[in-house]
């Protein structure tokens, strides 16, 4: 039988025993050889296949090492009763381990949400998706682009960086060249790279309190010592930063527009004072301006980077926030020697982005589609902010406090102390509504009892339904 | 004049001096106020605009801080002669800095290549691109998916991990659950994450020599001490690994199929010995099996991971290599507690992948499109390997040495010592051919005078044209 089932190619460069082993594993896996089946003795198998007995020994050893067969007293080798596929390989303790915890999804994963209050994301329903797809296909079928993309600079698509350099000048008075731009998978990668370049273990880093937990986590991962600077209605407390200047800290991380999580914007007076502190004390700053595009009250304040000419301020922006949350893209703006170092570090973890997608996106900046989309979003999100805040005020206004944000995509809603957010979150889930339990926004010392409520991606019907559920579960 | 040009909104929450500053910057940027224009004195401006003189002082200070205006002796404030936009902000030393060096593109960036010899990439012309786009659109327009994607597990799309767990079982006898899979942007990110979890500064890591430079760079970045183990025609020297076991090294990095750069495959005998060493000495292994799918001589050897049940082997695979080089995707397979930690680390640098794309790809695995595509590619690339190797042998065979690779997408071509690869690379560029100068493949100690020549993405016409150019520049 086995001389028919097992095909041996004597001209192959692969040793015969390996061929034999692989063929037998196939027979076992496909069910031809069932668990418990007795295999021929080494001598009989060798005879049947016309190979040296040592070849059969080696093949059996290989298959046994992979647990497909085992020796049974007085029976010789048999096909294993518990085949390797039937048990998870490597993973003895699997069932006891919880699944990887997603920082954006604290619990209730088994519920199917009908409605979601997110952290502040754009509405993908108004995004220029078809145009992106059109240009993406174009880029793909230009044979050249795909070929060349492998050898495009790892800082990002040449064409997109060119488009960005024009756009950043127009929108933010940031006069930068291509060499000052590194395109990343979302603003988060830009934070990680900037921090990796600047921080050594033990360095002091100033962050806002409350602050952006995923930035803090990066700094801590790199061994930094965090100093928390209070954030009030005018943004981060610059007088406290001035005091810290006496002891030569390494880095300040700041979110000038719509600070995360509280949505406050740095006041102009503080901004000016901060610029003069940077000039005087020459400390490094990561300016995370992920929300620049969405300022409703008036024109956004200009980035610190646009007023600071000595390369101390590294500027970070987000494309994701203007577009579609699943398409992650951001950028880091810095002096070219830093961009060069950041590019090297980026290659270690992500050789290059999707350069066809980046080229496709460049089209949208070049022909003004993105700019129009941002203006359109700005108008719509401002209306939605007003509707949502009015609903909150009218329906549950006595139970919460919030300030209408100047911009951004979320309201910072503080709940009355009588509400336990973890309980509310569970109750909401049972109503089909995803509501954060707020734990991610808390600092290590304080329970803020608050959540960010993203309004930008919700239409009025959804808002009304959400606030009705909130009202119900809060017993208002 | 200024009371017409400068609009002030006294109901705005923005301080008047900020409004004033922003408006004036706009006038300067738009060219209404030309460089050198004298501005009204503080008193006149305040009078004209009906604001307090202190407001004008604050506005002028803000604009001056951003270098839009400056004070000129005996003239008061004038619009700056060198406007901020005309010089690159931050970046005094810009012109002296070289652009970020791309490790995959050593030089000649200004040439327009007609032909490219790459490191070993798939042919995007045969990829199921239209199907991916179709499913991508489907995923996008399923409102739910985009909404939910924000809250999908950061380990990667639920659906794709499920598809992978089935596929890895069928193709590699790797019986893994979703919790054992982390989806990454290319295999490189998987290497970075696995190494970040396992390596502490000072740890000893065993790597092949010659070896994959981008993996070595990751280990060195993390502070590891590299020990280079020779790689010969049977793969890495396992006897040398055995000797190293005496001193308790931390990690072995191994590429079992088509080692990078030399394309050799680990022999079955060495593989078995290595498995027993791992079981005996319990060291950790990163098994980078980026090229598993493309084995021509016979069925690929099974991963070490499939024979090792204690979680010491972390397995890395690549989707990019089976699909399209610009769409970067890979995965890490490990015990769930390690995947959980790796997911946390991944979030710090890349909050989540493009989950719509991942869902789209899951379709292709579920309905067998990917499997068919891989079989088709395998057949085509084997033909191309044979054609390319025959051309090399017939046309320049006396000047080079190479072994026909068992699999993979590249041939490792060693040039006769009389050829200087850096010179050849320059000459090739002038003929419109991109040829690596080989420097990336060299170890620190040896000039191998060799390059990887990717054949998989070349059709016969391109191969003939490439070999003709090689012949010409080598004066054969």
UniProtKB/TrEMBL annotation, chains A, B:
Pfam families: Aminotran_1_2, GntR. Coiled coil: none annotated. Residues 14-82 form the HTH gntR-type domain. SUPFAM superfamilies: PLP-dependent transferases, Winged helix' DNA-binding domain. In the C-terminal section; belongs to the class-I pyridoxal-phosphate-dependent aminotransferase family. SMART domains: HTH_GNTR. PROSITE patterns: HTH_GNTR. GO terms for molecular function: DNA binding; DNA-binding transcription factor activity; pyridoxal phosphate binding; transaminase activity. Keywords: Aminotransferase, DNA-binding, Pyridoxal phosphate, Transcription, Transcription regulation, Transferase. InterPro entries: Aminotransferase_I/II_large (IPR004839), HTH_trans_reg/aminotransferase (IPR051446), PyrdxlP-dep_Trfase (IPR015424), PyrdxlP-dep_Trfase_major (IPR015421), Tscrpt_reg_HTH_GntR (IPR000524), WH-like_DNA-bd_sf (IPR036388), WH_DNA-bd_sf (IPR036390). It comes from the Bacteria. This is GntR family transcriptional regulator / MocR family aminotransferase.
